Structure formats: C-alpha cells, structure tokens
C-alpha cells in the first residue's frame, strides 16, 4: 500500500436502512408506535422503495463501488410463516441494479423494525424466536444469496436493547433491566441460529453483524479508569464474545466518543453535530484498532453525522479516511467504509429533522440534491487515497 493509498478493491459506499428510507411500511412495531403517537411517522420517507434506481445512479456518479442497504423483514414475511415472493422480486431488482453497475452490496436482514405479528408475540423474548428469525434469514438467502457475499443478520444489538428495554424510548418501550439483559442474549442466540441456517444454504457467503462501538477514554482517576474498562467490555465487546465463532467479519458502526472525567473545558470546546454528538477526529481509528483482537475482516458499516448545513461533513469525511488508513497501516484488516447515510432519512425518534445524507432530500418534492461534502468523498474514492 503506497503512502496515502488504500488497498486495491477497497469498498467505498454508503448505508441506508429500509424503514428509514423506503416509505410505505405499515406492518411493523415502529409504524404501530407512530399510530399511537409514541414516535414520529415515517410515512413515505424518501420513497426509496420506488426511487432506488435513480438514487443508486447518483451514488455511482459519486464513484461509490459498494452499498449497504436493508431488507424489511415485514415485507418478506408479513404473516408468520407466509413469505411474499413479490417483495423478494423487489429486492432482487435492487440487487440486480447494483450488480449491473458493478457495485458490491452489503445486505442487512434486520434493522430495528419488527414485523407486527412478531413484536406482538414478544419479539426476541418469545420462545422460539431464534428459529423464527433464522427461518426468515434462510429464506432470503435461498432466494437472493447468489447476489451478495456480504450479509449482516442485524444492526446494533446493544442500541436496540438499550433504547427499547432500558431507556424505554423505542418499541417495545420497556424500562426493565432484566428484560434488557434477556433480550441481548436472545438476539445473540437468534444470530447464531440464523448464521448456521444461512451457511447451510450457501456456505460461501460472509456473515456478520453491524456492531455499534464507542470510543471510551478516561482521565487518570482510578474510578474513571474502572468505568472506562467496564463500559468498554459491556458496550463494545460482550456481544461480540457471545457470537464468537459465528461471524466471518465485523461491521463497525461508529458515532460516539465518551471520556470519563472530561474537564468542563473539554466538554464545552468539543465540536458537535446537529444531534449534539461530539465530532472526534480519531475515535474511528481507536475503535478499529480495538477490533483487531478478533482476527476478522472489518468493515466500517456506518459512520456519519447530522449536519444540515454541511459545514462539518467535508472535514469529517477526510478524517474518516485518515482514521481508516492509519488503522490499516497498523494492521487492522479494514476492507471497506460505508458512510451513513446515502440520503437524508427518518432518524427514529427525531423523525425527519436530522440530516445525515450525502444527498439532501426535499421531503415535499422528494427532490435529491448532492451535498458539497459528497464531492469530497468522491475525490477520495476516485483516487482511492487520502486527500489533504
Ligand atoms: C445508527 C443507526 C442508524 C442511524 C444512525 C444515525 O445507530 O444504525 O439507523 O439512525 O445511527
């Protein structure tokens, strides 16, 4: 690898998730919660379900050679055990489209939203949930496995459990420490069962999860050091240990830096995104290095920021490339980077108010406008190298 270059074949892309962009998904727990007024409505979102072709064209015009997207479980299995072949054809068309332009897909099978029938029965806490989830994953791989090598069973298990079972702000809106712990183990079991089922159908595919990891630091105070070590284990590594032996690569979703014992000056001077999340230039590097211990290929499966004015995103993207490059130089086997997100989208409890897209979406007209930062990303992609 020459000085500033990335390895040949490095994947450069962006990520989306079905419920956040597709529109028209009504038979999931999130849509039910929206009808009950507990979370914002997603409605037609970006209409990506109908516009994926032109959106992928924009992505290709920016040089991207990879895309991560998710399949909506409730579209494929709207009733328990009844699979919808028409929706399989939809996702086949999505994959065909990527294939036609030589773009590598990373397919995620579950990104937070549960089919209503499954959530009403207790979701992952239901006995038999691993088999139910694995049956769905297996079905999709039977039908579409030939189109993609990179598969994720699910996205961010610890965020899912924390928001839904500890903070009580996402479906199923619980604040129950016991259920919180139970659901983590249940999702891990579902992953392991799905992994085995998917591999049986198509041994050649590579399967992982998208893991949300935080860069934890502390000052020299022993209590803060202890907090840092415990948080790191609990948030970043415990789940990965639970699925050890059942993953072929690790997807890293990275957004946060947390320093225990940060001074008030450090807190006040931190640069923040529109979400109020600190923008830390090297945290991605630290998270990648921390994943070296697993000895598996790594992909940055999400990394981005809410920045409607696009003032921080250009530098953020350059720093992301620097962080990945430095991690590779130090032996982290990073194979690709997927920016979050291709498009502005439905940001869960924030609704459509936060703008994560390389491409801006006008929600009245659904018009797309490429943000200036996307051209910065394009330069990096085209050179497959760092830029100043
Ligand atoms: C991640 C989620 C993704 C999006 C970004 C901002 O935690 O996976 O859906 O909401 O945060």
Q: What does this 3D model show about the protein?
A:
The structure is a single chain. With 388 residues, the chain is α/β, with parallel strands linked by helices. It has a single domain, classed as TIM Barrel (Alpha-Beta Barrel), CATH 3.20.20.80. Helix content is 43%, strand content 16%. Strands 1-2-3-4-5-6-7-8 form an eight-stranded parallel beta barrel, surrounded by six helices. A two-stranded antiparallel ribbon has the order 9-10. A hairpin with a 6-residue loop joins strand 9 and strand 10. The longest helix has 25 residues. The protein starts with 10 loop residues before the first strand and ends in a 5-residue tail after the last helix. Beta-D-fucopyranose binds next to loops.
In short:
Helices cover 43% and strands 16% of the residues. It is an alpha/beta fold and 388 residues long.
Number of strands: 10
CATH domain class name: Alpha Beta
Q: How many domain modules? A: 1
Which outline best applies?
Answer: globular
Strand content: 15-25%
